[in-house]
């Protein structure tokens, strides 16, 4: 299972946003929706072996994590609004310390990146990291930031994690996911 975790620094945690304004009043939830789509969609099918965790750090009750699981997801279409609708549904659900299903393949819990880092080992996708093409063994779990940099507190949490770059340009987070998945596709089909 490949997993991507994206930190949404301003993304609201209460689901009290309009689906006509999820790029604005919701705290750039559009960035997170695009990461869900980049993680899970192929042209005519879904990547069933990929999970996408979204960490919400905006007001009023951070942190929360919403998990999209490619294995069990249903009712997700490739437009951003579709992902935003499922996110809103998950955030409106009262959440506790364990994942609770909000819809098939979508679950939510009341914790953030610190807990995820305790549960598994992560590589950080970072424009200044080691060239992923030169890495023999690519990790299974990756952490990314949204449209902003990791905070100093996050930098210290991830200081021991290996950092990988997908290329010399600074990309949007969803594009970095696409390039990384392309590298995994190439390797798994003997293209390298
Ligand atoms: C828009 S960038 C964040 C802001 C960026 N640090 C800047 O200075 O503009 C979003 C995220 O995508 C990932 N990313 C962007 N470019 C990358 C690259 N070349 N290699 C690996 N990850 C990259 C990183 O996780 C980054 O935090």
Protein described:
The protein has helices at 29-40, 80-92, 113-119, 152-157, 173-188; strands spanning 2-8, 50-56, 64-69, 100-103, 106-109, 123-131, 141-145, 163-165. It has 192 residues and is α/β, with parallel strands linked by helices. The protein has one domain (1-192): Alpha/beta knot, CATH 3.40.1280.10. A hairpin with a 2-residue loop joins strand 4 and strand 5. Helix 1 (29-40) packs across helix 2 (80-92) and helix 1 (29-40) runs parallel beside helix 5 (173-188). The longest helix has 16 residues, at 173-188. The model has no long low-confidence stretch (mean pLDDT 97). Bound molecules: S-adenosylmethionine (SAM). S-adenosylmethionine (SAM) is lined by residues 125-127, 144-145, 147-149, 165-167, 169-173, 176.
List its salient traits.
192 residues; alpha/beta; Alpha/beta knot; eight-stranded mixed sheet; 5 helices; 28% helix; globular; binds S-adenosylmethionine
């Amino acid at each position: 299972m490949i997993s991507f975790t994206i930190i949404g620094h301003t993304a609201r945690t209460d689901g009290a946003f309009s689906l006509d304004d999820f790029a604005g009043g919701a705290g750039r939830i559009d960035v997170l929706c695009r990461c869900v789509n980049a993680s899970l969609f192929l042209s005519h099918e879904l990547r069933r072996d990929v999970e996408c965790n979204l960490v919400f750090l905006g007001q009023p009750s951070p942190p929360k994590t919403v998990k999209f699981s490619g294995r069990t997801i249903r009712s997700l279409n490739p437009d951003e609004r579709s992902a935003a609708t499922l996110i809103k549904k998950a955030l409106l659900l009262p959440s506790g310390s364990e994942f609770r299903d909000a819809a098939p393949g979508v679950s939510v819990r009341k914790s953030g990146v610190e807990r995820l880092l305790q549960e598994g080992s992560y590589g950080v996708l970072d424009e200044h990291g080691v060239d992923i093409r030169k890495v023999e063994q690519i990790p299974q779990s990756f952490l990314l930031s949204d449209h902003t940099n990791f905070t100093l507190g996050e930098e210290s949490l991830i200081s021991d994690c290996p950092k990988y770059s997908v290329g010399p340009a600074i990309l949007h987070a969803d594009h970095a996911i696409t390039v990384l998945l392309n590298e995994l596709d190439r390797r798994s089909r003997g293209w390298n």
